[in-house]
Amino acid sequence: MRRTSQIVRHIATRFGKDPYFGLVLVIPLLIWVFGTLIYPLVEAAILSIKNVGYAGTSGRYVGLANYVNLFKSPTFLRSLWVSAIWTVLNVALQLGAALIAAVILNQDFWGKNFIRTWIIVPWVLPSIVLATLGKWVLDPSLGVVNYLLKQVGLTNTPVSFLSVRRLALPSVTILNVWRWFPFFAVTLLAALQTIPRELYEAADIDRATPFQKFIHIELPGIMPVLKVQALMCFLWAANIFDTIWLLTRGGPAYATTTLPILVYLKAFQEFRISQAAAMSVVMFVVLLVGSLVYFWRSLEIEWEE
Amino acid sequence: MKKGRLKSALKYGFVILLSSVVFLPLYWIFINSFKTTPELTSPTPTLFPRTFTLEHYTNLFTRVNFLRYFFNSTYVAVISTFITIMLGSLAAYSIYRCRYRGRKLLFTLFLSIYVFPRVLLLIPLFVTFSKLEIVDTLLALIILNVTTTAPFSVWTLRAFFTSIPIDLEDAALVDGANRIQVLFKIFFPIAAPGIAALALNSFLLCWTEYLFASAFIMSNELKTIPVGMSLFLDQYFIDWGMLMSSSVIVALPPIILFAFVGRYYVKGLIAGAVKG
Questions:
Q1: What are the backbone dihedrals phi and psi of residue B41, each rounded to the nearest 5 degrees, phi first?
Q2: In this structure, what is the dihedral angle of CA atoms A288, A292, A295, A296, given to the nearest 10 degrees?
């Protein structure tokens, strides 16, 4: 009896102390992460060296055949290329637009607190709203874009933006930029506001133009934040599925089939689970390079407290 | 003097341009949802409806089972958010407030999930969930959502948790409170804005989630709003009125929540981004 109570007391005091208390708090999340992230990662790697078709059937091991076939497949190689263009375009346009918006928002104007907070609204809305908006404004017969083009006299025949090969990817990109740039604008604005006022005052004495101030004060001031944002933007853009899928289904003729779209098509429409798994593993490895850079950088700054 | 006025005009010009780019499309969806179908589908767009109608809203409840979609979305988002708060705030407290070896490694692990390709999870989890026979259930969506939101919460809470002075907890410990009391009676109440921001963030992610909901749910009565709406978009003759009214309804919960805790939310984003 006495021994039991001693153990209980021992545990109680032990639990109060740091390592154990801390571990007890973190273990639920850790278990969750292992079950739903680490285990699936291993499972995906195993699936990718088998020849499973439908989900739930068990295939046999085929070694690296899926990977070899991937790099022979024109569909996959084209999709890599589309992904690269999509990602580069998105990063450049999102951050470019965000930078301009942040500089505008950083001015002193009536209603600035309201606009600085609510500018982020496109980002909190579901992608289905963006898809509705996109299909609506770009519609060949009802869309306002075609209406305006006609009014200006640029074209008389309606343009079907989402089903013309050369126009589909740029159109989806612009819509996606509209949804994401406010997010980066808000964070870049915050970075701009950390720039000390004395720097601007010094620049005023030197009679610097607004453009010179931007190049010599603001841009260097927000560069560390901008770099981290660029990496986040790269990873997020590379992972986007829903906006593209809802607008074009990867079409026309694979013109907007980025890697996430191709993985989905392979797995859920062609029922080639193993091939899709191999693709997603390749995608993971490609993104991991970016992630490593990102984490290496962010940790450097993050952990100095 | 004249130069100053020109500058000011230029400034407001840019502000109005930016606001139009962001807000005009949203205004337009809102106003379109009240237009009659002929006006909505006429080739000449109008910025204000000539006649108001609520038919697109009533259609949502009479022609399709929108109420069911709404219930499913709410159910999944609320439960996922609740689990996220439980798992995330405890883990975040552990990482920022307790001292043990390897917490930097844990921090890196949770942060790295932020950029995990979601399609990579799609396939193995579909296979696993098939074996567990939970494909085509809302439980599957809850598990998938928490997987994306919970690790992220450690990062979301960082700015809030690290800004709370540790002296308060120390004082309570000296007064004889145990660590669990300190955690629930002192720390979490002070950290409430951070937890509110986390709740908003995870609710938004779950509410807007499309990929998992479209892949893991087959039954019509289990679909969430984004997936249900995508069915409207797939019709050969698209019912634009219904798409507009459902867009307004699906946008309302995020906007209302944002109105209440948006301030903290943006503050958290900013603190995370600028300090990081």
A1: -100, 10
A2: 180
- What pLDDT score was predicted for residue A304? 47
Give A172→chain B minimum CA distance, Å: 16
Tens of pLDDT, residue by residue over B191-214, are 888 898 889 889 999 999 999 999
**A101 contacts in chain B (CB < 8 Å):** 18
Residue A6 CB burial class (10 angstroms; 0-12, 13-18, ≥19): exposed
Supply φ then ψ for residue A77, to 5 degrees.
Answer: -65, -40
Q: In angstroms, rounded to a whole number, what is the distance separating the alpha carbons of residues B188 and B184?
A: 5
- Which residues make Cβ contacts (< 8 Å) with residue B144, sequence separation at least 6? A36, B121, B125, B209, B212, B216
Residue A68, CB-side half-sphere exposure with 13 Å CA sphere: 6
Which residues, at least 6 apart from A33, have a Cβ–Cβ distance to it below 8 Å?
A: B109, B110, B113, B147, B150, B151
Residue B110 with chain A: CB contacts under 8 Å: 29, 33
- ipTM, 2 decimals? 0.88
- State how far Cα B124 lies from the chain centre: 25
* Residue A218, both tokens: 């603001």
- Given a contact cutoff of 8 angstroms between Cβ atoms, the answer to whether A254 and A86 are in contact is no
Report the pLDDT value the prediction gives residue A301, as an integer from 0 to 100.
53
What residues in B contact A55, CB-CB < 8 Å?
A: 123, 126-127, 130
Give residue A257's pLDDT.
93
Q: Which residues of chain A have pLDDT under 50?
A: 1, 14-15, 304-305
How is residue B13 written in tokens? 């010009």
